Amino acid sequence: MTEWSSQGPLPFIAIALLALLFLLRFVVPAAEMGRVKAGIFFTGVYLASLVGLGVFNPPVPPPTHHDWLRLLSVLLFSFSAVITAGLLLFDVVLVRREIPRILRDLVQGIAYLITAALVLTRSEVDVTKVFTASVLTTAVIGLALQETLGNVAAGLALQLERDFEVGDWITLDDRITGRIRDVRWRATTIVTKNGDLMLIPNSAIARATIANFSRPTKAHRQWIHVRVHFRHPPARVREVLVGAVRSLSFVRADPSPDCILQDFEADAALYSVRYWIDDFQRGNTFDSDVRSAIWYALHRAGMEIPFPSRNVNVTEMNEDRARRKDDEEYARRVDALSRVDVFRALDAEKIDRLSRRMRLVLFGPGEVILRQGDPGDSLYVVRAGSVAVQIGVLGASKELATLSDGQFFGEMSLMTGESRAATVVAKTDVECYIVDKEAFQEILQEKPELAGIISEILSRRQVVLGLEAAASAVPTAVQKHQLLARIGAFFGIKPR
């Protein structure tokens, strides 16, 4: 107890620090548990030394000497206090602010030096001699560890300049690309896109040319290059390419995507599609999706991505084979038209003419085929694949049905020119036949009485689908007459 009382309030403060450190174990992150354990260890050693000194009661040294054992115990207590203060400051008070680890270590290192100097001074130890010896020792160590100290200095400079932070995506000299995991005293750790961990000396990073993809904002521009045949007009090509990219959900609307004619090559024009994204890590996946959308868009527009001129493709096509392919395609077209109820009133000759005017288009998964509210004048027949019919309700999208092979949509726009009543999205790779107004107008002008038959079929179909508010399942004469008038006005005929 004599030893305990001679230390004044320090033992009681040590007990409080010990209790506080045990509580901090449940608050601080796992990465700082080493500091908590060090603080508990220093405090425990200090209290144990008091007990040991009280039990063994070693003699007090003469006035010309220092009681180094008791001095060491006080230093351990002081270091424990510094550790506890650092944990409270950085992990409790400033927990919401990202303090660089190097800066934190530097602050605590200075605190250790100041605390040690104060304790030694109060114990009447000649601090100048201690620090003189320390300077000489440091000089010797510094000469032996020049490279390591250079990495330490570079790491400190990188943290203070704040040109990048943990979590940023960077590339070094266009050779190493990854996300910063940690900036330590000697090296910076980077996780590449392949999930590999790389440790790069800070001095090498300080000398490297760094591109930071996360600054000044998360927005990053991607480039996709595509070759298109010379016979297609550049303005039309750019329109098709930008339209394909703009429809993708991950592409930023601001800044908007664009396309430039990059170069004229030996066998094609080179276009560069540029678009902005927010997630640099998924850049390769986004590039793949953009290339797929571009392929489908160019195919629908009838634009060719040419083979290199040195490749020669030869396909033997005799007359019988060509006739057989034409017959198979003709049969598929006639079968597709026969499934559409609004065309069942047509005779074989008109079905034949209409089938030869149909166009085949392709869509990729997730592409919007029709958008609710857009103008339209064509009908789509699904040849292969499946599509989702969606309608906007209170700002949300609700799926009404899924259509597959042989089913059709867009008949009201073809017959009346009204805006699209729903949005249709491809769920898989989809092949569709398109029947447009121009192909059907000639048939109606030759036989206007077809308009009456078609109006009755359409009005009945509207009631079944619930597109018109009707009290019964049978369309009224007024509905038929209104629909007939709209068909006549759209095609410029006088229905009978």
Please characterize this protein's 3D structure.
The chain contains 16 helices and 16 strands. The protein is an alpha+beta fold and 496 residues long. The chain folds into four domains: 2-144; 153-212, Roll (SH3 type barrels), CATH 2.30.30; 220-300, 2-Layer Sandwich (Alpha-Beta Plaits); 323-491, Jelly Rolls (Sandwich), CATH 2.60.120. The chain has a five-stranded antiparallel beta sheet. Strands 9-16-11-14 form a four-stranded antiparallel beta sheet. Mean pLDDT is 79; it is low at 1-5, 139-146 and 467-472.
Considering the chains and any ligands shown, give keywords for the structure:
single chain; 48% helix; 19% strand; 4 domains; Alpha-Beta Plaits; disordered N terminus; 16 helices; five-stranded antiparallel β-sheet; 496 residues; SH3 type barrels; four-stranded antiparallel β-sheet; alpha+beta
Helix content: 40-55%
Biggest β-sheet: count, sense, barrel? Answer: 5 strands, antiparallel
Q: Given this structure, which CATH class of the largest domain is correct?
A: Mainly Beta
Known CATH architecture of the largest domain = Sandwich
Estimated radius of gyration: 40 Å
Q: CATH homologous superfamily of the largest domain?
A: Jelly Rolls
What structural class do the secondary elements suggest? Answer: alpha+beta
Can you list the strand order of the major beta sheet?
A: 4-3-2-1-5
